Structure formats: C-alpha cells, structure tokens
Amino acid sequence: MTPIRAAAWATRANFFYSGFLFATWGVHVPTVREHYGLGEQALAMAMLAAGAGALAGLTQAGRAIGRLGAKPVTLASGLVVAVCVAALLLTKDYTVLVATMVAFGVASGLLDVAINAEATELEHVAQRKLMSGFHGMFSLGGMAGAAAGSALLAAGVAPQAHLWGVALAGVLALGVATALMLPFKPEAGGESAGFSLPRGSLLLLGVLAALGLIAEGAMYDWSVLYMHRELGSPQQQAALAYASFSAAMAAARFGGDWVRERTEPAGLMRWSALLSAAAMAATLLIGEPWVALVGFALVGVGMANVVPVLFSAAARVPGTTPAHGIAAVSSVGYLGFMVGPPLIGVVAQRSSLAVALSLVVMFAATLAVAARRALR
C-alpha cells in the first residue's frame, strides 16, 4: 500500500473515531441527565459549555495546525476528547460536568479542523474527490457507536464501563491511525495566523454550513431523547434513532462523491435540503416511533452531502486559497454544530422538544432557498 493510500485510510479511521465518540455521548445524553438530575435547560447549558469550548478551539485551530501540522494536533485533541468521554459520569458535581464539556468542546473543535485539513491535503494530492467519503466514515462511526451503545444498554452493561471501554479503544485506534498520517508541511507563518471571521461569499457558505450542521447536531444530541421522552420508547430502542440517522447519512455520503461528479451542486443541495425538511416535518407531525426512525434516516440522506458540497464551493472562491476557504467555512460551520444542540435545548425547556426540533425543518428549508445564490 502506498503512503498516500495508507494516509487516506488513516484519515478515514480518524473520521470514524470522531463519529463513534460523538455517538457515545449522544446515546448517553439521557444517562447524563439522570445521573446529574438535570432539567432540559441545565442540560442545554452543559452543551452550551461545549459550544463555548469549541469556539475557543476553533479560534486557535488555524494557528495550531499552521505551526505544528494536522498530524500532532489530531493526536493531541483526539486523546483529550477520549478522556472527556471517559470522565462524563465520574462525579455528580454539575461544575465538573460543565468543565468536562468545555474541554470536550475545545478538543472537538481542534480535532474537526485538523482531520478536515488532512482530508483537504489528501484530496489535492490524490487529485480526485474524497471529501464525501471521509465524512461518510464519520457517519459510519456514529452508526456503529449508537448501535454498540444500544446493544450494551440492552445487555445491562454499566454506562461507566461502556464509556471507559470506548475511550480506551479510541485511544488505541487513534495512535495507530495518526502514525500513518502524512506529515504535511505546516504553512509558513501559520504560527502567527490569528482567527478572523470570513466575509462575502465565504461568510454565506459558512452560515449555510452552520445551518446544516446545527440540523445534524440536533439529530446527534436530541433524537434519542425525543424518542425516549416524547414518544415513550425504551432507551435501548430510542438509541436506534441515532443509528438510523447515522446509517442513512453514511450510505448517502459513500455515494456522494459519485453523485457530485454528475450533479450540479446547487440542485443537489436544494433537493437534499427539501428532503430533510419534509422528512423532519412528517416525523414531528405523526409522532410514531417507527415513523421517527424512517424520518430520521431520510433527514440523514438529505443532509449527507450538504457539508461536502459547501466545502468544495469554498475551495473555489476567487481571491483565496482552497485551504483557507475550507478552513474559514468549516470554522463557522462547526461552531454551528456545537452551538446548535444547546439552542434546541433552550427552546425545548420553554415549549417542548418537538417544537424545538421544528427548527431543523426551518434550517433545512433555508438551505434549499439559499442554494442557488450560494453555489452559483
């Protein structure tokens, strides 16, 4: 196997690892809520702490990767994410939970940007579309993590044992994968490059990426709780909501590079977003567990290629390099991924989780309306 192919598989493994850990957190949102005795608003504040941490991480991601390269940043941030997952239930002190979520957010922000930077470099070196497939591995990791969590809950495995096992396995996999990553040369002057918000076309693409990732984050963090509390499903069945969404998204992303080669980007994003909006609306209006599982899967299909399409567009914005364009859009987009779920929680506290998840319908519809202007 050539070094480039080995590095591509290593990057796929890192996307899978990231998705698996996010799924583990998603499955145990009800566990954390019950362990600490939290209401929706307190739980949302803990998620908001992760969002604040992600903002801090994203403001420094470009500087860290520019100075050190994606490889060491991936290793360090991935280790911190694993430690935070293992520490979720160590105490019953809400302050410790908030601190853990801040660290989780900082490390997650760094990890997301680092693995996407590596993916961008590999796409350039290989001279073919790879981004949808890499993001498909994140979704596949989410599916596997949710399915494993559901099976272990049904088998009566203690949540803390599950979290420690996932963290240990993740650390081992991360060590092997990062050893195979290509040590792309850090950008000259990267150590002094500060964070700045994108403007113009990049800002529009970043906002749309944020809307798509808010919808995706809502599925990861709230779909299990929606089925468990709103629809009365047992937790092991409710965990399948996450698996359904992630499996469908993974399948659509693995075919996404083929579709993107043959479909006009604006049309692909418009129809994909409309599918997500319609599926989520039907799920909330009908309110049946089996409809929810199908609906979440269709939301996953619709959202699968939104981010790869937007990242590809960012790489072609005139007046900027592909790497800078993708970094700018991903920074705004992943901020939405981390901040969106707490927003859903605040709305749920003031009304209901079903009403809060209707924001997913609104954001998907906005993506459909803005597709032509953003991707012309």
Give the SSE layout.
Blueprint: H1 3-27, H2 29-36, H3 40-68, H4 70-86, H5 94-126, H6 131-154, H7 159-180, H8 201-230, H9 235-254, H10 256-262, H11 265-286, H12 289-303, H13 306-314, H14 322-350, H15 353-375
Please describe what this structure looks like.
The protein has 376 residues and is mainly alpha-helical. The chain has a single domain (3-375), classed as Up-down Bundle (Growth Hormone, Chain: A), CATH 1.20.1250.20. It has 15 helices and no strands. Helix 8 (201-230) runs antiparallel to helix 12 (289-303) and helix 8 (201-230) runs antiparallel to helix 13 (306-314). The longest helix has 33 residues, at 94-126. The radius of gyration is 19 Å and the shape is globular. The model is unreliable at 189-193 (pLDDT under 50).
For the CA atoms, what is the radius of gyration?
A: 19 Å
Look up the CATH topology.
Answer: Growth Hormone, Chain: A
Number of helices: 15
- Spans of at least 5 consecutive residues with low confidence: 189-193
Span of the ends, CA to CA: 39 Å
Estimate percent helicity.
over 70%
- Look at the structure and give the mean pLDDT: 85
**What's the helix-strand series?**
HHHHHHHHHHHHHHH
Largest sheet: none
Mind telling me the CATH superfamily name?
MFS general substrate transporter like domains
Strand content is under 5%
